[in-house]
Amino acid sequence: MPTVYPCVVGHEIVGRVTKVGSTVTKFKPGDLAAVGCMVDSDRTCPECQAGLEQFCPNLTLTYNFPDKHLGGITYGGYSDSVVVDERFVLHVPANLDLAGAAPLLCAGITTYSPMRHWGVTKGKKVGVVGLGGLGHMGVKFAHALGAHVVVFTTSPNKKDDALRLGANEVVVSRNAGEMRKHAGSFDFILDAVSADHDIDAYIQLLRRDGNITLVGAPEKPLAVPAFGLIFGRRSLSGSPIGGIPETQEMLDFCGAHNITADVEVIPIQKVNEAYEKLVKSDVKYRFSIDLASLKSE
Amino acid sequence: MPTVYPCVVGHEIVGRVTKVGSTVTKFKPGDLAAVGCMVDSDRTCPECQAGLEQFCPNLTLTYNFPDKHLGGITYGGYSDSVVVDERFVLHVPANLDLAGAAPLLCAGITTYSPMRHWGVTKGKKVGVVGLGGLGHMGVKFAHALGAHVVVFTTSPNKKDDALRLGANEVVVSRNAGEMRKHAGSFDFILDAVSADHDIDAYIQLLRRDGNITLVGAPEKPLAVPAFGLIFGRRSLSGSPIGGIPETQEMLDFCGAHNITADVEVIPIQKVNEAYEKLVKSDVKYRFSIDLASLKSE
Using a CB-CB distance cutoff of 8 angstroms, which residues of chain A are in contact with residue B200? Predict the structure, then answer.
């Protein structure tokens, strides 16, 4: 499969199938196809049998991970083609822009999966904390799932963008008064912040049995007062990507709702520059690399 | 209702009904009856309508809470009788020892409710952290629900007692090697510790989708690293008491399984001494006051 649009850092890949092995049944040459964070797992453990390969103790990550077949490490989408077992290859709906589809394979599934797991549906009130690569997908999914979406951001200048992406309301989280207005009202909050932040301020916004799921991973442990969880029987959880069946479900959902990530497409020659911008959060909202640019090397 | 056995601090009450109002249908004089942490709520909010009065924003606590009817504050079970609306009075199975039944009204329901909420059943592996008033009830319930029960304690000398109460295994939590053996294996952990402790050490013991529920409330916030929750899609939650219907369910369950708390029965004259012992955790596992002793005042 030629890898057309992997993201920086190479674990979100879309392209077209060029060749299939003799036992392949899911794909034929010419099909649009995608590969996410995983390219292999043991396929026999209870997690794999449940279609939750992301929890397999023996999975092979797409990028920078020991390669069981070739030795060395996996290089993901930094290549003009990639060989992957069909179990770990997804179908991409034809109506989706390919560059914008690539980030669905990690940022997409990472935000879609916990929303499905914790029951985000029409009529639920959903918060999204942090409007970056993950957060902006969270807003699109929560909106498409029919929820009332509130974006929490430290940057007042992100307000217009949040509304454009599908938010019904935007709260500047540094404003304690604005935060208090939402106390005890959220069914679900997706926390996509990887910087240190006051998690209890968000726990207090959950209603009874509400859940806040971390998809960003701050370096330092979060400070969680017990009472915020006890009153309201609230829960704090985390979630990685999703399994292969759910990743396909997510792509199909994106096809039906015409959802892709907002991307800045770059040639491979600008990857270091893009990385530096990414570290400074200066990207709206994901870089997608056009690997046709490899040919001009 | 005469209050025969309230616990220290007066919010776990059992006794016999002496008199009922003309519109009372659930009780008649002579019935065994119990009152827990709540004596009133607004009865109209969605929580009350769902039988989850513990989350009513307008509930009246049994002890040391503004009394809407008489003014002043509520005094709970420190009395030879108490008047309570039948909605907040529970039936006590006749086979239960009354002194041991009193703590079911708070320690009992506080540990039973999260186990039911998070699906503790036969075949599940359940941990109980801390073997005190709450923890010892957690062990009894988890065992009666059919789970494989592991008690975590900092005191090796509690081992025999934990096994007697129904534990299948006892882990001394200061022993990192013993802890590691259980990594990724628990469906549910009940954390009944109110001192500061390393919550991540227990989060690491949960399997995929496992939950750890706090019923103790350490004074300082707990330090929760995001990755412990993200890998395994684990959750950390809290839980207070239960609603009235579930409290009755718990008492009926105790009747069916002959479960009561282990108590030390004291006369009211020893209440201050008992309080000092309680602060030092020197009680197995709850003090229950025999209020017949009030008559000798």
Answer: 221
